[in-house]
Design brief:
The chain has helices spanning 13-21, 41-53, 88-102, 109-123, 161-164, 168-175, 193-205, 246-260, 267-276, 309-325, 342-346, 370-380, 390-400, 415-425, and strands at 32-36, 59-62, 74-78, 81-85, 128-132, 150-153, 185-187, 210-212, 218-222, 225-230, 233-238, 284-286, 300-304, 330-334, 353-358, 384-386, 408-412. By secondary structure, the chain is an alpha/beta fold. Keywords: ATP-binding, Ligase, Magnesium, Metal-binding, Nucleotide-binding.
Length: 430
């Protein structure tokens, strides 16, 4: 296929050349909600999908990366009901056509997969597309879409510094590259003022109708409910099905973005969306399966693919919130790849984790060795034991916690690890 030797090579030249050979399918799409950011992209995408489907619309969804199967990146909209992950035949046909059109020229895997996205989504009817970027923004292969209905920029923090820059302001500038002149922009919760300033300045320079979380719209928890408010009024909603306080902001951003894209959001639809939204591998509760059976009986097991310091903070906050409601010893099972910041990620758990076990990532040549990861945990202020697998770690927890309160186990540190766990546990996303 002529795969590019770098794997990542941020440029739009190759994807544009390929799409032209394919007849420019990206120019023949339903309205697009384009989603970028460091953390919370997938959650915003899931909320947008749930909100639109709750109103009977058919929604194509592109997400990146997948957890277990390539097919997960493409959800094909079905009128009046939940969209379905693309079937084997449709995916294989689109992939073959893209490979043939590329003609062996240098190209990255993500560019091939993005071209598949545009073939699938241009040829299968739908009312709207929710399109999540891959790594960046400005040079992301999805950024060939010329006039999206709205652009969402989710929280910016340090990640992929080798490609996007080593300061949040530089990363924000790259993510802001999906903004198009005159197209509405919704900015989600931003922890760093420098990043927020870059995003706002870019939107204003391009003349984009702009709404900003905590300035133009907001959401908060009150009496066990989610209260959403913007210039159109207030909605009293159930808390999202996705756990974690950070999901309140993600839900609010999605509600505002769907409105900015020109769709109404009724309170009835928003309530249905909060109760039906799903996003595998992001604080996902595992209640059965082959791996679950190896953990101490009665354990509470959570799986999350967050892998940078910002993600570590929101996951740790979610674990602390669970501890407030029901006290259990927290055990971490962590695997990470070597392009991430393990110390920054693990530091968030220093005051709440009882035991830490480090594990390899199967099928990846970029996974951190469990011994090296345990050393990083020590530098972060945590004692960790290296293990040969997630299953072995769960067995070790079973032995150590025998006779005590069943623990809360958080397995995380990488989307690759989340995929390993879902596959081995027998809970593949559908």
């Amino acid at each position: 296929m002529g795969l590019h030797p770098k794997g990542y090579d941020l440029s739009l030249d190759r994807i544009r050349r390929l799409l032209e050979v394919l007849g420019n399918p990206h120019l023949n799409l339903p309205p697009v909600i384009h989603v970028a950011g460091t953390n919370g992209k997938g959650s915003a995408t899931a909320f947008c999908r749930a909100l639109l489907e709750a109103q009977g619309l058919s929604v194509h969804v592109h997400t990146s990366p997948h957890l277990v199967r390539w097919h997960e990146r493409y959800r094909i909209g079905v009128k009046g009901r939940r969209g379905q992950i693309v079937d084997d035949a449709l995916f294989a046909d689109a992939l073959r056509r893209v490979a043939d059109a590329n003609g062996g020229k240098p190209i990255t895997v993500f560019e091939i997969l993005t071209a598949v996205t545009f073939i699938l989504f241009s040829e299968q009817p739908a009312d709207v597309i929710v399109l999540e970027v891959g790594l960046g923004g400005r040079f992301d292969a999805t950024n060939v879409v010329e006039k999206p209905a709205v652009c969402i920029i989710q929280p910016i923090s340090l990640d992929h510094q080798a490609y996007l820059g080593d300061r949040v302001e530089l990363i924000a500038a790259e993510k802001a590259g999906i903004m198009k002149r005159g197209v509405p922009v919704v900015i989600g919760h931003q922890e760093f003022d420098g990043a927020k300033d870059v995003l706002i300045n870019t939107a204003e320079r391009l003349g984009c109708p702009l709404t900003v979380f905590a300035q133009d719209f907001l959401a908060y928890e009150e009496f066990g409910r989610l209260v959403y408010q913007d210039e159109y009024g207030l909605m009293d909603l159930p808390l999202p099905r996705l756990p974690g306080r950070h999901q309140i902001g993600n839900a609010a951003t999605a509600i505002r973005a769907v409105k900015a894209a020109g769709y109404s959001v009724t309170e009835e639809a928003a309530e249905k969306a909060m109760l039906s939204v799903e996003w595998p591998g992001r604080l996902q509760r595992l209640t059965e399966g082959r791996l679950v059976e190896r953990a101490p009986e009665g354990s509470e097991i959570w799986l999350d693919g967050g892998h940078n310091p910002g993600a570590g903070e929101v996951i740790a906050e979610a674990m602390a919130s669970m501890e407030e409601r029901q006290a259990r010893p927290l055990c971490l099972v962590i695997g990470m790849i070597n392009t991430k910041d393990p110390i920054g990620y693990l530091r968030a758990f220093v005051d709440i984790a009882h035991n830490v076990y480090t594990v390899p990532i199967l099928g990846s040549d970029v996974g951190l060795d469990p011994v090296a990861l345990a050393q990083s945990a020590a530098e972060a202020g945590l004692k960790a034991l290296p293990m040969s697998s997630v299953g072995e770690a769960l067995e070790a927890i079973r032995q150590k916690m025998e006779g005590s309160v069943p623990p809360r186990i958080m397995i995380g540190g990488s989307l690759y690890l989340a995929g390993n766990v879902l596959s081995e546990n027998g809970t593949i996303p559908t």
